[in-house]
Give the backbone structure.
Amino acid sequence: MSLRETINTDVKNAMKAKETKKRDALRLLISAFKQIEVDERKELSDDDVIKIIQTQVKRRNDAATQYKDAGREDLLQIELDEIAFYQPYLPAQLSEEELTSSVQSIIKKVGATTMKDMGKVMGMASKELAGKADGKRINECVKTLLA
């Protein structure tokens, strides 16, 4: 069963269980999938679906940060709930130790020694760790190790 089929099944289960928040959050995902399919005229693979979910989570995180800064706890909670509904469909994220060791091995491969080499490291790290770690976390880890 593909990831998209799993999400469709979960929407149906949420409808039966009368979980309106989960149902609505997952419907937003499905509409994002359909929008990409229509715009790009292609069938989505599981990798495409994961990228779309990651984009949606990033948007929710950005919105949550803004709501928190504005003191809107009600809207903040909605965003955090949606993120929680999306997380099970994403691949497991690397722990800080795993991320650090992966970035260290990439630094050795590239031969980076200073902050001037950050672009080379980030390019390779972004490709190798795609889906396993957020770009922001990778960036912070690279800066720490090259500093």
The two ends are 45 Å apart (CA to CA).
